[in-house]
Amino acid sequence: MHPLSPTDSAFLWMETRNQPMHVAGLNLYTPPPGAGADFVSRLLARWGKQRQAQPPFNLRPVLRLGMWHWEEDQEFELGYHLRHLALPHPGRIRELLVMVSRLHGNLMDRNRPLWEVYVIEGLPDGRFATYIKIHHALVDGVTGARMMASALSSSARGQKPALWAQKLGVHPASRSTVKPAPGLLQQISDIARAGRDILPGIGAGLMDMLRAGAGVAEVDGALPFQAPPSPFNVEISGSRRLAAQSYSLERLRTIGQASGATVNDVTLAICAGALRMYLQAHNSLPKKPLIAMVPVSLHGETDAGGNQVTLLLANLATHVEDPLARLQAIVHSTTQAKQRLSKMPRLQKMAHGMTTISPLGPGIVTGSARKRPVFNVVISNVPGPRQTLYLNGARLDEVYPVSITTHYLALNITISGYCDKLGFGYTACRRSVPAMQRMLDYTDAAIAELEQAVSKPPACADKMPRAPARVRKASAAPRKPASSAASAKPAVPQRRRKVSAS
Amino acid sequence: MHPLSPTDSAFLWMETRNQPMHVAGLNLYTPPPGAGADFVSRLLARWGKQRQAQPPFNLRPVLRLGMWHWEEDQEFELGYHLRHLALPHPGRIRELLVMVSRLHGNLMDRNRPLWEVYVIEGLPDGRFATYIKIHHALVDGVTGARMMASALSSSARGQKPALWAQKLGVHPASRSTVKPAPGLLQQISDIARAGRDILPGIGAGLMDMLRAGAGVAEVDGALPFQAPPSPFNVEISGSRRLAAQSYSLERLRTIGQASGATVNDVTLAICAGALRMYLQAHNSLPKKPLIAMVPVSLHGETDAGGNQVTLLLANLATHVEDPLARLQAIVHSTTQAKQRLSKMPRLQKMAHGMTTISPLGPGIVTGSARKRPVFNVVISNVPGPRQTLYLNGARLDEVYPVSITTHYLALNITISGYCDKLGFGYTACRRSVPAMQRMLDYTDAAIAELEQAVSKPPACADKMPRAPARVRKASAAPRKPASSAASAKPAVPQRRRKVSAS
């Protein structure tokens, strides 16, 4: 019995049928040459023998005296968690995303450990997918990605224990699975000690809010409550739609080098471009820039496992038409936010993050989140493995994160690195974000317009083709990247297969 | 906008992640000869064109002033409700039941009309299945079965509109989709008028409870609170396990004719025999008989649609070892209950039923339902079509109901008639009713022991093989029916394919 941290518990308290609180990863694999039609069945048979789950995969949540605890599931049943599925005819990526969109909308059973592993066969040429769903109370995105990667081998001949059978030791509950709940005095003393560490952080968050309230806005920085109302800041339904696509990391690096931006900033600029086009296509682009909440991992500063994140708010400059000027505004905004964060120790950063988003709670209850959103969209960049990985000899080709949407945050963009690619995963409420699959066309166009912008001298900027005009007549067909110096280079691979749920 | 009846609303109020309140039907089909591998895809393409849903399939629940109403879904999206799935390798009935068990455990999205139609391909020989899930607030079992049957043709050449595109007119909301919510005065007057009609029924229910409390028990009759604690009367989890099997109606009729029992009573006796064996195998057979709650349809007395049922409590005589004596005790108990019901008009019957189960609510809250269950198990017999039906030329072979389990009622048995067969569907909490798939072996054995009992003169009864002894060493392998006069007749078909989820 191990009590959950307040952050981890929040994911259980906040969960409802309309806002499930699990994260997931969708991986695509190619079996080894000559693997045979029963490759997936043999993989499942091998995994099916690993009936013992290691922490945290053997833990289920129980509520004791109003606090959530992890306790070992004494009736752990692998057959419930490990699931074999097949795509219906014709088995395209489209069918895969339709299936995973549905799976992602389902709440897990809290009477059992909060994870589900799906192996999905039936893609062309014997390819298959895994969709692995883990509750956010159990892991944050970084820990989840690390766990998934550590169940894979760096060699085609390697074999690792299944995800749930690994002795990871990364989860707090794995270090003491039988720990008494803290007594009342202990809890008060813990809170007091934590309070001493984090009070300066709370102050910084409050100061940001006061400045925003007083209208002391910086030109390009992003403060809470400066976010405009947008179609993404509405109540959500219980159904989801996913879209996913991989891009060459090299293409983003080239843009970054030419413009003095980090890859993270280029990623934000691509999302900003795509969001601007989506909103223009729906005649709902706000005059004020969208504000993105960007989680920042603190895993480099601690090995505590669980949820170890703070956040910064980035001005996406979606009101700026010129893609290069938009990128520069984003760089300015994130630089400011990172400078402020760099001055704080870890616990202060976490407190700052929590204070910054704390109005989210009352805002959701009172409905003010629609008129005055704290921010408009979550954009999360999760680092991933840099070398090719294998599962039982099958090569991992593509990695897509599938994340959480909540009331008033109907769209989540999570980007996951793998080898020389970045997988963009869009997770949205199927009802409030219509035609979400078009977001992939806009992402293509946003990269192309950035490539074009950085490859031209500034004097030519006003002659650039305007993305919005093209977007308004966009068709559902995949868009070819606009010709540019960057894409003409042989060193830059073409963008990868496009995947989207209908 | 149309307000729900109190009974229909109850299914929305009572619903939680652990007890979803939908019912479903699992149908198995054989495509017409020479149909081709794309038969299912063509069926889906045809259905996909029927984008307009008729009432009640276009209605979603909305809460207004504390009352549930149906309102038309203005953004109805067929692609969300109609779903194409495929069984993974090797595509046996076992894989089908595993899949449907999972689907049945998922809550529906209340932002949309509360139904989902799955077409599942991948069974051997091109066979396929449909699994159709409808919220119990929208239909009761009888209405649901009627709706599903009316979407099928009685001829192999016939084509009917899809389930959701039929103009059925059987649902109250289909007659006035735009009806203002009743004013406060109107509501009070409605309640007063209903009260006048149903008060005698409430009295009868209360009298039953008082008699049970005072220990005035009848020998074979069943009254509320006489039910013993049992492993089925525990809190449930959010996961389900299904088992299903069809039996020849003729076999049950033969048993009934030889013993003077109705087919309904024989059905109850088969369930009683199977439950006795299951409980003996788990060393938990109560000394007192299990009490079954048996819903009784009132559809013959009204055309009001929605939920129109009352119930009777049947003594299952599971403490009686002799199968014939057990059957006779069941006949006695249901005869008494039906005599009492036959003296009441329809609204009184509904009130009687609601009073009889009304302690369920507080009992669930206080946990007393575990020590003093009102009844132990729900056994529901839903009449079905008597002639062979077709879907786009594909022959309907088997029909299985999939029903609801609730806290303290972890097992539901629903039996559905189709042609010359009865499909037994067991729906259970996967966690509280372990090894549920064995129930099918026990059902086989229960029919066989009844056949043996009625085919022998009473003097030989004490030499009959004892089912419990056989059951204790039962294996998972299908049990052959014991040889008996009834099964030796060529007119009696052998039992059909056995299906159970692992």
Describe the structure.
With 502 residues, the first copy, chain A, is of the alpha+beta class. Chain A has 16 helices and 16 strands. In chain A, the strands form 3 sheets. In chain A, strands 10-9-11-14-15-8-16 form a 7-stranded mixed β-sheet, with helices on both faces. In chain A, strands 5-6-7-2-13-12 form a 6-stranded mixed β-sheet, sandwiched between helices. A 3-stranded antiparallel β-sheet of chain A has the order 1-4-3, with no helix packed on it. In chain A, helix 8 crosses helix 9 and helix 8 crosses helix 14. The longest helix of chain A has 30 residues. The radius of gyration of chain A is 23 Å and the shape is globular. The two termini of chain A are 43 Å apart. About 11% of the residues of chain A have low confidence. At the A-B interface, strand 5 and helix 4 of A face strand 5 and helix 4 of B.
